[in-house]
Amino acid sequence: MPRNTYLHHRVLHSAHDMPDPGLSHISIGVRNYDVSKAFYTAVLETIGLRLVYDSETKPTHGEAEAENEAKSEDDNNKGRKRTRTLGFGPDEAHETLNIFEFPDESAPLAPGPGFHLAFNAPTRDAVIEFHARAVGFGGSDNGLPGLRKQYGETYFAAFVVDPDGWRLEAVCKNET
């Protein structure tokens, strides 16, 4: 089927079956891999995202080829330390957040005011748990869980700042 016909069919018959529009993933930099791994594993679990990639674990069969390519690239970059990486998503095929460690960077890693990452939460209880875990794993409160009617009648959200200064939000737009 020609591509235009395929897309036309998908739009007319099932918008939910369309490929995800917009962003594929977001990548952020952090100073401490271990702190960020603990923080994001605990916090993102509350909204259905899990650790799906860890550069420190043995690669799976499918990753072995990429690992060999990376080693040859490392040979070309002798003296440069390999960046430790984490990936989070609902599954391996949908990695939505990548985290790269930059322990020696002196510049700020998180952007300034106006920027935050907002994650959809399935329930209001998940928003509350997201906030509690974030604060419990070294983040700071930046807005307690609650309704934000200025954004919508059912807009229930919580805001936190991770250990590296990244501003995060969990939001549920359901009535419960």
TrEMBL record:
<feature type="compositionally biased region" description="Basic and acidic residues">
    <location>
        <begin position="59"/>
        <end position="78"/>
    </location>
</feature>
<dbReference type="InterPro" id="IPR004360">
    <property type="entry name" value="Glyas_Fos-R_dOase_dom"/>
</dbReference>
<dbReference type="Pfam" id="PF00903">
    <property type="entry name" value="Glyoxalase"/>
</dbReference>
<keyword id="KW-0456">Lyase</keyword>
<feature type="region of interest" description="Disordered">
    <location>
        <begin position="59"/>
        <end position="88"/>
    </location>
</feature>
<dbReference type="InterPro" id="IPR029068">
    <property type="entry name" value="Glyas_Bleomycin-R_OHBP_Dase"/>
</dbReference>
<protein>
    <submittedName>
        <fullName>Lactoylglutathione lyase</fullName>
    </submittedName>
</protein>
<dbReference type="GO" id="GO:0016829">
    <property type="term" value="F:lyase activity"/>
</dbReference>
<dbReference type="InterPro" id="IPR037523">
    <property type="entry name" value="VOC_core"/>
</dbReference>
<feature type="domain" description="VOC">
    <location>
        <begin position="22"/>
        <end position="173"/>
    </location>
</feature>
